[in-house]
Automatic annotation (TrEMBL):
This is Transcriptional regulator, LysR family. CDD domains: PBP2_CrgA_like (cd08422). Gene3D superfamilies: 3.40.190.290, Winged helix-like DNA-binding domain superfamily/Winged helix DNA-binding domain. InterPro entries: LysR-type_TF_proteobact-type (IPR058163), LysR_HTH_N (IPR000847), LysR_subst-bd (IPR005119), WH-like_DNA-bd_sf (IPR036388), WH_DNA-bd_sf (IPR036390). The keyword Transcription regulation applies. It comes from hydrothermal vent metagenome. GO terms for molecular function: DNA binding; DNA-binding transcription factor activity. Belongs to the LysR transcriptional regulatory family. Keywords: DNA-binding, Transcription, Transcription regulation.
Amino acid sequence: MDRLGAMRIFVRIVKAGNFSAVARELNTTQPTISKKITRLENELGVKLLRRSSREQELTEAGQVYFQRCQRILDEIDETESIVRHQTIAPQGTLRITAPVDFSHSILAPLLKDFLQLYTDIHVDLILDNREIDLVAEGVDVAIRVGELKDSSLFAKPVAESFFCMVASPEYLKQYGTPSRPEDLIKHNCITYSLLRVWDIVKNEKPGTVSVTGNMRCNNGDMILESALIGAGLAILPYWLVYEKLKAGSLKQIMQEAMPDAVPVSTVYLDKKYLPLKVQSFIDFFTTWAKVHPAFNL
């Protein structure tokens, strides 16, 4: 049997927590994965996993085997990575997931520049505001905006996302320009769904202010369009509005009351072994963001 391949599958199962996710990742069936593990256990003469209908857990022998397999595979992957960096250009399909709004504003021009440089890479892009399972969906790298939740994944910050309160010149002419957090109660505030307060800075301290408005939405592009036609005030990421501010179709207000920037991060599965295509994308994104006006308020 392919012992090295079986070791990789076993490690993936332990990390993913189930057979189905690994089967989807490898584009095969759950029974096929199960047979490979059974064959591995028969070869070793020990049980590695205790299986039930919903989950599995490592046996004592499985824990030892898992730890040693990880070390062995890490060494192999690191060795191969070193050789690849010296002899092979980045290539293959790069599967990326990112939030919808961010992709429209930032990822489209970023990928255009990236793919012009790396002509042997093809991108498979999944747009989703949910934080999808990278293993289950076979994703190489995720782009996340905001503070990250604790997880077993690895992350690298590549930029900062600043916030701006904006309104159209027409709206401000008709309803006036707020200058203090207390003034917002008099205005129509377009908010993200489920939000009834805005994070703001009051008296140089982080705080919140209750706001009201006649519309909430779960899509930043829609909130932007509403602000552009004079429907109300909105707080949006700078990368979503910077071109409109430059053109004068939106005005920036109360910037001193905006909360601190949040990180834009690339998130991936493995720290020690990153495919060259993934490392190339992360490095390119980091360099690109440093000079892009969307990340320099």
